[in-house]
Known about the structure:
Helix content is 35%, strand content 30%. It is of the alpha/beta class.
Amino acid sequence: MPAITLQGVTKQFGDVRALRGIDMTVESGEVFGFLGPNGAGKSTTIDILLHYTHPSSGSVDVLGHDVSEEPAAVRKRVGILPEGFAPFETMTGRQHLAYAIEATDVDDDPAALLERVGLADAADRAAADYSTGMIQRLALAMALVGEPDVLILDEPSTGLDPHGVRRMREIVRAERDRGATVFFSSHILAQVEAVADRVAILRSGELVAVDTIDGLRETVDAGAELTVDLAGDPTEISPAVAAIEGVSTAAERDGDLVVGCTADAKLRVLDEIRAAGGTIRDFSTGQASLEDLFVSYTEGAA
Ligand SMILES: Nc1ncnc2c1ncn2[C@@H]1O[C@H](COP(=O)(O)OP(=O)(O)OP(=O)(O)O)[C@@H](O)[C@H]1O
């Protein structure tokens, strides 16, 4: 049984068509990354999944329950890390967990959950005084209460330091390994690339891709990333390289010229650099990153 199914979901806010007909299935037990530029409709989709807002049309099913008909049954089995979680003024981290545990009617140990997200030392401090990253860790601990079947994480890496980002990744993997489905939105593409089994890319309220990252690479044929160390200024040569057939991006990065291109365009790029008078000191090739793929799917989005 799929964990999440959206069929023909639209959402209209006045004149704004935030979602224009989303059909999407998230399988049980997968880690699913939900991507899109600002304003693409990610938060609107998540709000609809959680029954915080109604779709204008279409249907949403989570764990076999129609979200609009059985919202309570869905909430019971879903752990949520909302965007912009704000702690209660007067409660400590431990008290937040105790509250979430009671509300979910389970007997989890607050200390163990706080330890899991790296907040053990701050358990008895007022959560309103936590830093942004600590608040995000607390929100994650609350989402994990009761071993939910589905975790919905809206921008989970916001404010996290590199240790927090790594811990988040480990927790997502551990949750998947215990059998949970993880659906998360993110702008941190390296994070998505590291953990997601599949990704969906939303653009202006429409899904433009749903696939594994390797599948996306094949579809856009943006299989290669070429990094060229030039004797001169890379920006002098990048416009000529960008015009080569099969090249999707050509830009300076850390003094090198970095070119996103199809596998068969690599030699043409090197030839063109030499023909344009460039001196190649060294070069290396790698796979297109999720960032390259994201840009090629969403370029020109309003
Ligand atoms: N309550 C609302 N009233 C009017 N328009 C809204 C409302 N909520 C969202 N929108 C519009 O719907 C569109 C999608 O917004 P949404 O917040 O879902 O995007 P997002 O993909 O989550 O963006 P971001 O990455 O910036 O968080 C935007 O054009 C936004 O202005």
